[in-house]
Design goal:
This protein is of the alpha/beta class and about 325 residues long. The chain is built from eleven helices and ten strands. It has an eight-stranded mixed sheet with strand order 1-2-3-4-5-6-7-8, with helices on one face.
Length: about 325
């Protein structure tokens, strides 16, 4: 077989030693059209061969998927660190059954936090990671916006760890924390624990806002009303107010049902503490009022200068 035509290479359980990995690295350095490389159950026996191999993967022009399951990566943090660096090249990296543990999770989390542009799927199942090992992933997902799927199933993560991860992608403490949640990644522990993230990031944010406000991404029909989560609106910026009102407006024709409040009453409770003048000015396209700053002029007189208005939260 002509090596120049190899796109998918499987070398599982081939007892590769340092010499075998050296030969494989040399093959990769020849820039073949390889896209998928599977190396299950081929442990690395020294750091040097792991580093040479990782550099060859990172420099390879077409490699997309790397599988290094059950390769004993948890036995040596330096080797694990080298393999983790391939996240800067591949789009799918599988590290299952490697006994990585919490220390290894920290290594992986450090690389994830750099937001590798190519990595979309990371598989970390069966790695003896517990609730403490969740923290590096929690911190990494606060900055990582490229990862789409994180698999942590069959680890020792309890409901406590799942709740930490759930809050990363759906923190409904307020609309600000919700807006700043991770809207790109699904996390799999015992089933997927995140709200649906299909479609664009813009639509995902809207769905999460609806879920946080109303308890569902679907607006109820005319048989009843909805009880809103009022605490979400306490620190809402002017820029988000039109979006919030658009959701509430969908419920404005509902009648009172049982002991639930009519949606217009909910709208009133939301709006009454807002700066309504600023809100409607902004919704109409006007520049929201800005604080005036005084500056001293020559001769001791003073005048006022409008401060620039900065809006960190775009209309969704």
């Amino acid at each position: 077989m002509n090596a120049k035509n190899i796109v998918h290479l499987t070398l599982s359980q081939n007892c590769l030693d340092s010499q075998g990995y050296l030969s494989l690295s040399k093959f990769l350095e020849k820039k073949s059209p390889l896209k998928i490389l599977e190396l299950d159950k081929n442990p690395f026996d020294n750091v040097a061969s792991a580093e040479r191999f990782s550099k060859a993967i990172i420099a390879h022009p077409t490699i997309e998927k790397l599988v290094v399951d059950n390769c004993g990566l948890g036995d040596n943090i330096q080797i694990l660190s080298s393999i983790a660096s391939t996240m800067n090249r591949v789009s799918v990296l599988s590290l299952c059954w490697n006994d990585i543990g919490n220390d290894g999770a920290t290594v992986i989390g450090n690389v994830l936090s750099t937001n590798p542009a190519s990595l979309k799927t990371l598989r970390m199942s069966d790695n003896e990671i517990d609730d403490d090992g969740v923290t590096p992933f929690e911190e990494a997902l606060c900055t990582n916006t490229n990862l789409r799927d994180l698999h942590l199933s069959r680890n020792d993560v309890t409901e406590l760890g799942e709740s930490v991860l759930r809050k990363v992608v759906f923190d409904d403490t307020s609309l600000i924390t919700l807006y700043n949640s991770n809207h790109t990644c699904k996390i799999y522990v015992s089933g997927h624990i995140t709200p649906e993230t299909t479609g664009s990031r813009k639509n995902t944010v809207k769905k999460k806002m609806s879920l946080a406000m109303f308890g569902s991404v679907k607006v109820p029909d005319n048989t009843g009303t909805i009880t809103m989560n009022m605490h979400l609106f306490s620190d809402a910026p002017v820029e988000l107010m039109p979006v919030e009102l658009s959701f509430i407006n969908k419920c404005s024709k509902f009648v009172e049902y049982g002991d639930k409040k009519p949606c217009l009453s909910n709208m009133y409770e939301v709006v009454r503490n807002w700066n309504v003048t600023a809100m409607f000015s902004y919704a109409a396209g006007a520049v929201a009022p800005t604080e005036k700053k005084k500056r001293k002029m020559k001769g001791g007189n003073s005048t006022t200068k409008k401060a620039k208005s900065v809006y960190p939260y775009p209309i969704l």
